[in-house]
Specification:
Blueprint: H1 17-32, H2 38-42, E1 51-56, H3 60-69, E2 75-81, H4 85-94, E3 99-101, H5 104-108, E4 115-118, H6 125-134, E5 138-141, H7 149-162, E6 166-168, H8 176-186, E7 193-201, H9 216-219, H10 230-247, E8 253-259, E9 272-278, E10 284-290, E11 298-304, E12 307-312, E13 315-320, E14 335-338, E15 341-345, H11 352-360, H12 366-370, H13 374-388, H14 396-415, E16 419-420
Parallel strand pairs: 1-2, 1-4, 2-3, 4-5, 5-6, 7-10
Antiparallel strand pairs: 7-11, 8-9, 8-16, 9-10, 11-12, 12-13, 13-15, 14-15
Length: 428
């Protein structure tokens, strides 16, 4: 989910994918052949220094992020940008004292800004992220990483060349329940994982009210292929990222079907998708996203020969197979019945990571983490990575893998074929 606010620029700054891609090769050569980033690489931000930040795109998702970002200690948002005045004024009321812009280039020209959050439509992610990193700024860009695989690889290369952090907004990696589940999965609590199922089901058109027809693409950009990669990008990419993470591998093939079968309103992206991803280990991952029925909502379900993990933001449950050995701590665990089956509610507060942090006095008690949603935890880690140099959990290399799988799924549905994803596709 990204904001509609920056999909179009002022007439003298109109951006298109064609003009962006036309300049990509020359830009890459220019970066490789100069030392313009030496000073940017040498910048040092201490643990107590204030980071000046800006945000580009402050529609629904951008303002949602900004409300959380202003809570991060020692971070000051000094600039907001959006071409829609109502969005911009809302952002300025959140980041009090910041300056407003309707042209993102003016924000990037500011030398006092060290980091930017980008929450614009998908097809603008690459251009804006690349220009931001070139201007010496670290970037947190909303998901999916980019409109095309080529765009995403270009972003990763520029991050490496400039030495700037590039984090992509697959925030489930920061959810305490997901992190706790990840640890248990890697300890073998499910045994050998053989199958995964996930879905993100909604009942709604995905179309937003539009005051006049000429603004349709600006507001409803998600519904048009020239601007959007549809359900696989906006919803499916989050869950593909989780599956890649939990399995520790990336898909080697995908097949699927989709269609515009219900919402006959001029859109040209599918209103329903169903795919099967194959992984090198033999795991099969079935994925579904609907816009006509919300039953089951959104969850990921990992099925192993010792148990099944069902997880979604806010809750994770473990269902043991009848033949699985009883866990040492199973009798002490909180249990609930769902669909006639008794499951163990996984409690992130029991995570050894949190217990260790408590011992070290670093104030990462479970109850404190529970007060923060995964978006805030994601933002905190982004700004911390700028200070101490660590790699964010969803850096550009991780996000590229997710982007590739999502785009290949669309290709498979378009061709009605099984599409192989050889290992070299993931290389960059």
């Amino acid at each position: 989910m990204v904001t509609e606010g920056m999909q179009l620029m002022k007439s003298n700054h109109t951006l298109t994918r064609r003009t962006f891609l036309k300049g990509s090769a020359a830009a890459t050569l220019a970066i490789a052949g100069t030392g313009v980033f030496t000073e940017a690489r040498g910048q040092s931000i201490g643990p107590d220094d204030v980071i000046n930040a800006g945000i580009i795109g402050v529609g629904s998702q951008g303002s949602f992020l900004l409300e959380r970002a202003v809570k991060v200690p020692n971070v000051r948002f000094v600039a907001c940008c959006d071409i829609q005045e109502k969005n911009l004024q809302r952002a300025l009321s959140i980041a009090k004292g910041s300056e407003g812009y309707d042209d993102y280039r003016k924000l990037l020209d500011r030398k006092d800004i060290q980091a930017v959050v980008i929450a614009t439509p998908l097809y603008l992610h690459a251009q804006m992220s690349i220009e931001a990193m070139r201007s010496g700024k670290h970037v947190l860009c909303e998901k999916m990483m980019a409109y095309s695989i080529e765009d995403a690889k270009h972003m990763l290369r520029v991050s490496r060349q400039t030495g700037k952090k590039l984090q992509i907004g697959h925030q489930r990696r920061y959810d305490p329940n997901y992190r706790h589940a990840y640890k248990l999965v890697n300890e073998g609590i499910l045994g050998k994982i053989t199958h995964v199922r996930a879905q993100w089901n909604r009942n709604g058109s995905w179309r937003r009210p539009c005051p006049e027809p000429k603004m349709d693409e600006l507001i409803n950009w998600r519904l048009y292929r020239k601007l959007s990669q549809g359900l696989m990008a906006e919803l499916g990419s989050h869950q593909i990222d989780v599956v890649n993470w939990m399995l520790g591998e990336t898909p080697c093939a995908v097949m699927g079907v989709g269609g515009i079968d219900y919402w006959k309103d001029g859109r040209d992206v599918f209103d329903n998708v169903q795919c099967i991803f194959e992984y090198p280990s033999g795991v099969k991952f079935q994925y579904q996203s609907l816009t006509t029925n919300q039953f089951d909502g959104f969850t990921e379900q990992f099925m192993g020969d010792q148990g099944t993990l069902i997880i979604s933001p806010g809750k994770a449950m473990l269902f043991r197979e009848p033949r699985a050995e009883e866990l040492v701590w199973e009798d002490m665990a909180h249990k609930e019945k769902i669909g006639g089956k008794e499951g163990i509610v996984l409690d992130a507060s029991k995570s050894p990571r949190l217990a260790q942090k408590q011992v070290e006095g670093q104030k990462l008690e479970a109850e404190q983490d529970a007060k923060k949603d995964d978006y805030l935890l994601e933002l905190e880690d982004f700004f911390l990575s700028i200070r101490d140099g660590h790699e964010p959990l969803c850096n550009a290399r991780v996000a590229l893998d997710t982007c590739i799988a999502s785009i290949k799924a669309n290709e498979a549905m378009d061709k009605l074929q099984r599409v192989v994803i050889p290992p070299e596709v993931y290389k960059c």
